[in-house]
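FORM 7B - TANDEM STRUCTURE REPORT

SECTION 1: FIRST PROTEIN
SEQUENCE AND TOKENS:
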Amino acid sequence: MLKILYHIITILQTRDGLFINEKGYILQNQFNAIGAYLKQEFGCKVIKLSIDGGFTCPNRDGTLSTDGCIFCSPEGSGELASNIPDQIKLLSAKWPNSKYLAYFQNHTNTYAPVSELREKYYAALDYPGVVGIAIATRPDCLSDGVLELLDELNKKTFLWVELGLQTIHEDTARLINRCYPLATFDDAMDKLTKLHIKAVIHLILGLPGEDREAMLSSVRYVCAKNIFGIKLHMLNLVKGSTMEKLYPDYVSFETMDDYIKLAAEAIRLIPQNITIHRITGDVPRKLLISPTWSYEKLRILNGINKKLSPL
């Protein structure tokens, strides 16, 4: 049975363009946030159901490596789960007029026979209220058969594909054991663009050895592509990762303000036509090693919005 990972922070949009969370903090709409985009697209609140499709990764099963990317947790971001119908029932009780996106999140969600992918994707789309699908994968896991299936889906439903790039710098890519070169990402983007498939790119801020300019150059590079969206992750050192063994004392950003300043700079580089899906990182507190304050998501979001506000 398909499983879902969920982590929800309630944000309500007011008519004046501000966002107010459930604790009353004001989050100013300073950029093209995906939540607002989806509300405009579907005319209601749209919630992502983060699905564990039971996939692995070529960077874990021995095809490329057995260690995975050094920052990744053993579960590949799938630490919490419940079944789809029960979770939709729970969410619909709180948001009765909402719709859902089936989000295949942890590990590499195009790394399986096409027949298996088709079965799982369409099973998720069959649930009442599911209006589209988002698929997280690697640029080196888009075979011709997978692309044909994605093209099929894209013509039938709302779709985006997420590519875990993390950085454009080859030395960093080797350090984090990404196991594919930048040229592979470029090729994947060319193929997705030709098929008119929306692409969302993941970048990690705070990787070892990268300074401010290195991080911002990754943002500039991907924004020059024909991308639909971008996710900015703050690097979190998590328990059970290879990084914990290699760099047990590593801290990506010494203070919250350091991250807020860098994230605000990155956001200013992102054109308004590109949707922003994330500007921090989500890690269960029980797995977090550093930065010790990164679980304080509301403070980080408000700090970024304050930094972006005109004087």
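SECTION 2: SECOND PROTEIN
SEQUENCE AND TOKENS:
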Amino acid sequence: MKLLPKKRKSSGRTGSSKGKHRMIQCSKCGRHVARSKAKVVRRRTNLVDGRMHKELKDSGTIIISGQERKFLCISCAVHSGLVSQRAEDERKE
């Protein structure tokens, strides 16, 4: 029986020696993906309106911004432009 060549050394996962990672749900399509394979997107969100933000900042108030964290599967990350596909000769390492 002939073994197929491996496309990636890491099998598409981030490096860790902890064994199997828990499954999470993609924020865009709902697909269940291993935590090590998902791409994390962090985005800062303003909790205050734009005009109010400027007035508060001028008065010297400390404004805390929230942080939104999303997990995307590889296909959604490629579709939204966060990750690009590599050339074929670069893939097989």
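SECTION 3: OBSERVATIONS ON SECOND PROTEIN
Strands lie at 23-25, 32-34, 39-45, 66-72.
Residues 50-58 form the longest helix (9 residues).

SECTION 4: SIGNATURE
Preparer initials: ____
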